[in-house]
Every structure is written in structure tokens, then in C-alpha cells.
Amino acid sequence: MRKEDCFYLGKIAKKFSFKGEVLVYLDTDEPELYENLESVFVESDKHLIPFFIENASLHKNDFLRVRFEEVNNEQDADVLLGCGVYLPLSMLPKLSGNKFYFHEVVGFEIEDQRLGVFGVIQSVNDTSAQPLFEVLNGNVEILVPMIDQFLVKVDRENKKIIMNLPEGLVEMYL
Length: 174
Prior knowledge:
Elements: E1 6-15, E2 22-26, E3 39-44, E4 47-59, E5 63-68, H1 74-80, E6 84-88, E7 109-112, E8 116-125, E9 132-137, E10 140-145, E11 151-155, E12 160-163
């Protein structure tokens, strides 16, 4: 499985028992959706390796206590600590309305109600305090804050994000 075909679910945070159980930190608002998984992909040396789950249960809200097949002791579990956990994109719950996954809107046109279409979303930068759309207009990069109050509509059918941006925000780049 390629990483591009998967989404990040969380990471293996710590060992739970001497029998090889681990706690997976779930980076999601709905951890209960992932309680009955049969398998996950664990990132090791930049490769995704399938791991089958013997049993799993929620632990303290956003952790999943997991017993993987063939991980039977602390030494086996030690190797997995800090590794990212991924699932295929097909397992993401479908979102509707103005909710979207970051990967879903890459390639969408972005339109301001006042200015019209002003570029295409190249990626989403979520490393800062406020996530930003990285928009390309010709060869000019425009950073647009992803603020709920600015977002008017996610038009999946026409692959377009419609926003009502403050005057001057886009113009300062052009």
C-alpha cells in the first residue's frame, strides 16, 4: 500500500502490557469509529506494513489499546513505538456540507465572492497555528487562512471552494 493512498490515523504511543499490547494515539474526533478494525498499516522505514489486530478497545478517550498478531512481548512492541498508523483512504467516513478532508480539496479552484476564481489549491499547510490553503495563481503562491467564517461553500461537484475573504487579502499577493 502506498502512503498517498492512505490517511494518518495516529501513532503508537506506548506499551501497555508485558504481552506486547500497545496504545495507539488516535488523531481523530471520533475514536469510536476505529474500535473494530481488522488491520492497520504501520509505517516502518518509510514503508507501510500491514499489521493484523487480534483485539482492540478504546482506552481513555483518544487511545486505542491494541494487541497485534505476532507481537507477543515487550521487545516486539518496543520496535513499534513512535510509528505512524495508517488506513486506506476508502475507510474515511464521507463528509458532506462544508466539512472536508485536506487531501480532498487539493486541485479545487478557489473563488472569492467579490473577486471570482483566483487560483487552484496546491496543498494545505497545517503546520502553523492556523491551517492555510496554498493557492497557485499563475506562478504566484497565495496563502489563504482556513477560517470557518470565511468559508461559504465546498462545491464538490464543480471542484470549487467558495469563500468570502476580507478585502485586500488576495490583492496583496497580486
